[in-house]
From TrEMBL, chain A:
Name listed for the protein in its UniProt record: Sugar ABC transporter permease
PANTHER family from the UniProt entry: ABC TRANSPORTER PERMEASE PROTEIN
Annotated keywords: Cell membrane, Membrane, Transmembrane, Transmembrane helix, Transport
Gene Ontology terms: biological process: transmembrane transport
One GO CC term on file: plasma membrane
Domain of life: Bacteria
UniProtKB/TrEMBL annotation, chain B:
Entry similarity comment: Belongs to the ABC transporter superfamily.
Taxonomic superkingdom: Bacteria
CDD domains given in the database record: ABC_MalK_N
Gene3D superfamilies: 2.40.50.100, Nucleic acid-binding proteins (2.40.50.140), P-loop containing nucleotide triphosphate hydrolases (3.40.50.300)
Pfam families associated with the record: ABC_tran, TOBE_2
Keywords: ATP-binding, Nucleotide-binding, Transport
Protein's UniProt name: ABC transporter ATP-binding protein
Species per Swiss-Prot/TrEMBL record: Sulfitobacter aestuariivivens
Length: 288, 334
């Protein structure tokens, strides 16, 4: 397959896809960079020319910037911890032979197929509504005062919704990893005198480390850009304004495209810092 | 100490009884081999002894104490698995030390025992490698190392050599035998290879469909197989089993004669046939002979390189005192 002719033919045939993808990525990226150096207020005079680094300075010095970064990282970190921990537990559970296994597995995976907007709306209206929500009924049943989740406990609520969305993904990947564990290893550990918890810690967890790494890497990339769940629930209020939400507000609500673009560039930088950081720490697991 | 006794042990998976009631005593220090065809329940029996499977009914005693309900770790047995079951993320040193760490042994003692095991098994140079960086034979030795550091009452081996190539298998066979001589610990060894069974065992247990067909030393089994199954299973190449009028001449339903107990003669032998395939091994030659009128292909071993070719006529004389006689149930007639 790897003759010179076949390789150049392959290149030729791949070219349209590569060019399309590059254009798809590069055009918005370059436009973002371009606008970030300009004063561009669509409703207040349009494009008003170069401003240098003004937008960048204004974006970071705004009082909303650091809280937004913190909120973003809090959501990412909490969701990662919850999904990985519960994902491992669920995967262990689903790995056991039981009645109706196929249906249970499909049910567990189901949340992943629900669109973020829809799932957030379902949570907001059916579970977290302080008057008619399921939680409110549950609280009242036990004689407690219903919590108005989306205002009083906005961050936990968002984290809960996003975790629910991503738990199936983590569970699925971890389940396939657990299924690939040689049962003789567990039996050997059992004979070697390792009780259940030690078997989990010494055999299963190391075996899962690679899968956990993959879950963390992929989820981080998507979680940094969480948007719909916030948009339809709190609208960025009550301390749930993430970086991506802040950018959205600057562009659409304040109608300042230049400032928003500068924020976009910061988001790219943040994502890359986090990615490099993660690769360094956990990426080592992927080597051997 | 390592005496293991099974009393009326049975095992069923759901409705399927894999092991009907079975009694067996394995004495301290004995090298016992379970041998039998695939699916006869050798692994199941070993796993029952190890405690990895629950027995359905019956009792297991280890060193005179009832171990039926004991968890595997409490039985004081060590097992070597067919797939080695090494822990891939741990170095060889940590693999071998694992059972000792689980037993909360002091670090100095652990180090001493690991060093000792490594020198017994020639693993000193590999202690800091991962299992993935070892050859099959070395992995096998690590698995054995992990078993011996615990100083168990008995070792259980489940087809430990079946993943190795032929030459290595012979080497490891010797090493395990020597280890047994040195440690004098009870060993139970599962294999479907009767050559392994013959060469290593003090005592062979021949199983078929979960039933013990015969227990005895390799030579006992070779000299006086209790029935036609054992007769056909032990010995290589297989014993010739002949039925019909030829067997009737000896007042038996079936007679058996081993290939090495039939002499090739120039002329006038008891039997006569044509040579089919001839396997020349140099030291001996195996002839597969057709058209003898005995109903079966007869296998004969001739010492040295006998120059008979495909299609030649061959004359054979079985040694009368080496003929085994079996009745209609396949049982030996004394
Ligand atoms: N977990 C199980 N569930 C149901 N049946 C089983 C189970 N384990 C083993 N068996 C059955 O029990 C019988 C004996 O199996 P076992 O593994 O002991 O055979 P074996 O003698 O070790 O064979 P081999 O030489 O191929 O390893 C087989 O018929 C097998 O199908
Ligand atoms: Mg087996």
């Amino acid at each position: 397959m790897a003759t010179k002719a076949s390789r150049s033919a392959a290149r030729l045939m791949m070219a349209p896809a590569v060019i399309l993808l590059l254009g798809w990525m590069l055009v918005p990226l370059i436009m973002t960079l371009w606008f970030s150096f300009r004063t561009y207020l669509p409703l207040r005079g349009g494009d008003q020319g170069w401003t240098g680094f003004d937008n960048y300075v204004r974006f970071v010095t705004s009082s909303a910037f650091w809280p937004a970064v913190l909120t973003t990282l809090t959501i990412v970190l909490s969701v990662l911890i919850i999904t990985v921990a519960l994902g491992v537990l669920l995967a262990l559970l689903l790995d056991k032979p039981m009645w109706g296994q196929g249906i249970v597995r499909i049910l567990v995976i189901a949340p992943f197929f629900v669109m973020p907007t829809v799932s957030a709306l379902v949570w907001k209206n059916m579970f977290m509504d302080p008057v008619n929500g399921l939680f409110a009924h549950l609280w009242r049943f036990f004689g407690a005062e219903p919590v108005s989740w989306l205002s009083d406990a906005a961050m936990p609520a968002i984290i809960m919704i996003v975790s629910w969305q991503w738990l199936p993904f983590a569970t699925l990947i971890l389940l396939t990893a657990i299924q690939s564990l040689d049962s003789e290893q567990l039996e050997a550990a059992e004979m070697d005198g390792a009780p259940t918890l030690k078997r989990f810690y010494h055999i299963i967890l190391p075996h899962l480390s690679r899968a956990i790494t993959i879950v963390i890497l992929i989820q981080t990339i998507f979680l940094l850009a969480v948007f719909a769940e916030i948009f339809v629930t709190t609208g960025g209020a009550f301390g749930t304004r993430t970086l991506s939400y802040l950018i959205f507000q600057r562009v659409l609500e304040s109608q300042n495209i230049g400032l928003g673009s500068a924020g976009g560039v910061y988001a790219i930088i943040l994502a890359n810092i986090v990615a490099i950081f993660l690769m360094r720490i956990v990426g080592k697991n992927l080597d051997n | 100490m390592g005496q293991i006794q099974l009393n009326q042990v049975t095992k069923s998976f759901g409705d399927v009884e894999v092991i009907p009631p079975l009694d067996l005593t394995i004495h301290d220090g004995e090298f016992t081999v379970f041998v039998g065809p695939s699916g006869c329940g050798k692994s199941t029996l070993l796993r029952l002894i190890a405690g990895l499977e629950d027995i359905t009914t019956g009792h297991i005693e280890i060193d005179g104490k009832d171990a039926t309900a004991l968890v595997p770790a409490k039985r004081g047995l060590a097992m070597v698995f067919q797939s080695y079951a090494l822990y891939p993320h741990m170095s060889v040193r940590k693999n071998i030390a694992f059972p000792l760490r689980m037993a909360k042994m002091p670090q100095s003692e652990i180090d001493a025992r690991v060093e000792n095991a490594a020198s017994v098994l020639n693993l000193k140079d590999y202690l800091d490698r991962r299992p993935g960086q070892l050859s099959g034979g070395q992995r096998q030795r690590v698995a054995i190392g992990r078993a011996i550091v615990r100083e168990p009452a008995a070792f259980l081996f489940d087809e430990p050599l079946s993943n190795l190539d032929a030459a290595l298998r012979v080497g490891m066979r010797m090493e395990i035998s020597e280890l047994h001589k040195k440690l004098e610990t009870t060993m139970i060894y599962v294999t479907h290879d009767q050559v392994e069974a013959m060469t290593m065992a003090d005592k062979i247990v021949v199983l078929q469909a979960g039933v013990i067909e015969q227990v005895g030393s390799p030579l006992e089994l070779y000299r006086s197989p209790r029935n036609t199954f054992v007769a056909g299973f032990i010995g290589s190449p297989k014993m010739n089993l002949i039925t019909g009028p030829e067997a009737a001449k000896h007042d038996a339903d079936t007679i058996g004669i081993r290939p090495e107990h039939i002499d090739v003669v120039e002329s006038g032998g008891t039997w006569e046939g044509t040579v089919g395939v001839a396997e020349h091994l140099g030291s001996d030659t195996f002839f597969h002979i057709h058209n003898t009128g005995l109903g079966e292909t007869i296998t004969v071993r001739a010492i040295g390189d006998v120059s008979l070719k495909h299609g030649d006529t061959i004359h054979l004389t079985p040694r009368a005192d080496e003929i085994h006689r079996f009745d209609a149930q396949g049982l030996r007639i004394a």
